[in-house]
Write a structure and sequence with these properties.
Blueprint: E1 4-7, H1 13-22, H2 39-44, H3 46-51, E2 57-61, E3 64-72, H4 75-90, H5 104-112, E4 128-134, H6 143-157, E5 162-167, H7 172-180, E6 184-185, E7 193-198
Parallel strand pairs: 4-5
Antiparallel strand pairs: 1-2, 2-3, 3-4, 5-7, 6-7
The structure holds coenzyme A.
Residues 23, 27, 132-134, 139-145, 165, 167, 171, 173-174, 176-177, 180 line the site of coenzyme A.
C-alpha cells in the first residue's frame, strides 16, 4: 500500500468535501442530488474538520487525498459546538425549512437546526463517533481498517472509552465492514443502524 494515513490539514478541506459527496448516497455518489453539492459535507464533514481537526485524518496517496476518517471524542460536547458555532455560521446559507419538510433536502437542512439530535441516551456509553469514507479507487484494500484503527487510538487518547457510528441500512457493504472490524449493534429507535466499538 503506497497510500498513508496522516493528520488532516486545512489544505485538505476541498478534497474531504468532494469525497463526502462522492460517497454520500449510502456509499455511492450523491453528486447533483441536492441544490448544492455542499449540503452533505456542510452537515457531515465541515463541522468535524473545522471544529475537531485533531480527530481528523486523511488517506494520502502521493499527495492526493483519497479518503478520511473524521469525528469527535465527545459527542455531547460536539453537539454544543454545532449549536454555538456551526449553526450560526451556516444558517444564512440554509434557511430553516418548513415543518413538515417538503422533501429530502428539507429533512437534511433540518438536521443543521437540530444538533441536539446527537444526544441519544442509548449512545451515551459510546461517547465518540466517526465518519469514514474512501473514494471507490481506494476501497477494498485495507485502508478503511487503517483509518478506523487511527481514529480509535486518537479517541482513546482523548479519553473516550468507546465509539459509535450511524449507518444507512441500505449500505450493505459498510455494514459488513463494520461487523468484520468487531462493531456490534446498539439498539436505537429510528431507521439508521447504530454500531459500537470499544476504543481499547
Ligand atoms: C466502507 C469503507 C469505509 C470500508 O473501507 P475499505 O477500505 O473498503 O475496507 P477494508 O479493505 O479496510 O476492509 C477491512 C476488513 O473488512 C472486510 N470487509 C470489508 N467490507 C466487507 C463486507 N461488506 N463484508 C464483510 N467483510 C468486509 C475486509 O475483507 C477486511 O477484512 P480483513 O482486514 O480481515 O482482511 C469503504 O468501502 C468506503 O469508503 N465505502 C464508501 C463510503 C461508505 O460507505 N462509508 C461508510 C459510511 S457509514
Amino acid at each position: 500500500m503506497s497510500a498513508v494515513v496522516r493528520p488532516y490539514r486545512p489544505a485538505d478541506r476541498a478534497a474531504v468535501y468532494e469525497i463526502c459527496v462522492r460517497t454520500g448516497d449510502a456509499g455511492g455518489d450523491a453528486t447533483g442530488h441536492f441544490s448544492t453539492d455542499d449540503l452533505l459535507p456542510d452537515l457531515f464533514a465541515g463541522p468535524y474538520v473545522d471544529l475537531q481537526p485533531e480527530l481528523a485524518f486523511v488517506l494520502d496517496d502521493g499527495g492526493q487525498v483519497v479518503g478520511y476518517v473524521i469525528g469527535t471524542a465527545d459527542t455531547a460536547a460536539f453537539a454544543g459546538l454545532l449549536r454555538a458555532e456551526w449553526l450560526p455560521r451556516l444558517a444564512g446559507r440554509y434557511p430553516r425549512p418548513p415543518d413538515p419538510p417538503r422533501g429530502r433536502e428539507d429533512e437534511l437542512v433540518g438536521l443543521l437546526y437540530r444538533p441536539e439530535r446527537l444526544l441519544v441516551p442509548e449512545l451515551a456509553a459510546h461517547p465518540a463517533h466517526l465518519h469514514v469514507d474512501l473514494l471507490p479507487s481506494h476501497q477494498g484494500a485495507g485502508h478503511g481498517r487503517a483509518l478506523i484503527d487511527t481514529f480509535r487510538a486518537a479517541a482513546a487518547a482523548a479519553g473516550a472509552p468507546a465509539l459509535h457510528v450511524g449507518v444507512s441500512p441500505d449500505n450493505r457493504r459498510a455494514l459488513g465492514f463494520y461487523a468484520r472490524l468487531g462493531f456490534t449493534p446498539i439498539p436505537v429507535a429510528g431507521r439508521a443502524v447504530h454500531l459500537g466499538l470499544p476504543t481499547s
